[in-house]
Amino acid sequence: MGDIDRHLRIAQEKLAATEEAYRNQQHTVVGDLAIKVVEQLIEADAASHNMHFGAHQERQAYTNREYPHQITVAMRKIWFAYGDLGYDGTNGHRARLVMRHLKTVAQFLEKRLGKQIWNSADSRAGS
Fold this sequence. Notes:
This protein is mainly alpha-helical and about 130 residues long. Helices cover about 75% and strands about 0% of the residues.
């Protein structure tokens, strides 16, 4: 149980930083951190099944097997936007989409884990 809580604390810390970066229009930071939030959320879910992943490919295989298609699509959109925001960080529209997809993923995992994740979130993020 401790690993679940540890991964969730890390995800929430990175989520708060992602939200702040979004509000400050630091779009490259949004892309960087959103991926890390998703990774920590997947690790929290895996920990709830006594699992741990060491590589992105392992997380992706797990999510493709365990999560609804809509959630894996949202995760992929965050991943691909990460590259776009890294090269074209001025794209506020792309950052807004990342926040929207991040909220979808977080809400899914809140239900799956029975834990609140998006508690610090600004309700306008991703709107």
